[in-house]
Amino acid sequence: MPVMIVTGTGTEIGKTVVTAAVAAVALARGRTVAVLKPAQTGLGPSETGDAAEVARLAGPVTAVELARYPDPLAPATAARRAGAAPVGPEEIADAAEKLAAEHDLVLVEGAGGLLVRFDETGATLADAARLLGAPVLVVAPAGLGTLNMTALTAEALRARSLTLEGVVIGRWPAVPDLAARCNLADLPESAGAPLLGAVPEGAGALTPAEFRERAVSWLAPRLDGRWDARTFAREADASGATGTP
Fold first, then answer.
1. Considering 23, 25, 37, 96, which one is annotated as catalytic?
2. Domain of life of the organism in this record (predicted)?
């Protein structure tokens, strides 16, 4: 698995922190890691982008950003408004392949959800995944509404004959409500793929040292971590019942 695509069921659900956790665990295993952000939107030239944030949290990764647009919009729209060239799937795939030749793992973090438009032709991150033959890791929210969004993303992947590696919950609450607790069992059914971890809400605010130490406990063995879905579900039920984190 030299290249893996990280996408989400929407925006602002924790893709960058999940990407950082996967990178941190891989680095701890002695692997070399690159993080590719094809299109960064909503930031000025001097602001810290997602790839740089992954490097800050995870450690010494090669962080690459192909394009940056100031408006917080879909990449195709943001590029058009900026009068700048968009980033197409061929450019994404070419950059990822070059990084894969020099790294053990390349994580390609998308913008928003799977089918957000990257250029004027309607190309998406799914098209880059197809060109690369890369598996896709889906980041999903914990609570109410996540089952439908996750099922739609999984269906879109299957329709394109793409491999869904699994689902990671991007922001697990300290005190999960009933919906979040039930979704631990229901998300794998909706996705047709395993639940591969849960990153706690606020993880991105940890110090880098704390983040790297704890990341292995947030991800399943399939992602080189030690997170166990059954144990986590039991602990979530207990914390939800008592109302304590």
1. 37
2. Bacteria
